């Protein structure tokens, strides 16, 4: 029973790590920035309107964009600016 739970958790973690970058890209959060006309662009527009024109640091849009820019640590040097 415990082994089944461990395998389920491990499988879910692998599934999440593999599919999260694809999901972010599909929403419009990419390494090149937010894609015009995408779900991400709509989220950013709504967040900016709610915050007087800016995106609050630490907001959902900011966190998702950071994850998209870093491609969820596929290449952590992009986030750490290491050559």
From TrEMBL:
Signal peptide: none annotated. One of its GO terms (biological process) is release of cytochrome c from mitochondria. It comes from the Eukaryota. InterPro entries: IFI6/IFI27-like, IFI6/IFI27-like_sf. The chain crosses the membrane at residues 47-70. Pfam families: Ifi-6-16 (PF06140). GO terms for cellular component: mitochondrial membrane. Keywords: Membrane, Transmembrane, Transmembrane helix. Belongs to the IFI6/IFI27 family. This is Interferon alpha-inducible protein 27-like protein 2A. It is a multi-pass membrane protein. Coiled coil: none annotated.
């Amino acid at each position: 029973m415990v082994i089944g739970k461990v395998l389920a958790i491990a499988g879910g973690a692998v599934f999440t790590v593999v599919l999260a970058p694809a999901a972010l890209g599909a929403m419009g959060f990419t390494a090149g920035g937010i894609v015009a006309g995408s779900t991400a662009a709509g989220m950013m527009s709504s967040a900016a309107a709610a915050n007087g024109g800016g995106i609050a640091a630490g907001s959902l849009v900011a966190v998702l964009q950071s994850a998209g820019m870093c491609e969820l640590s596929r290449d952590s040097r992009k986030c750490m600016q290491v050559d």
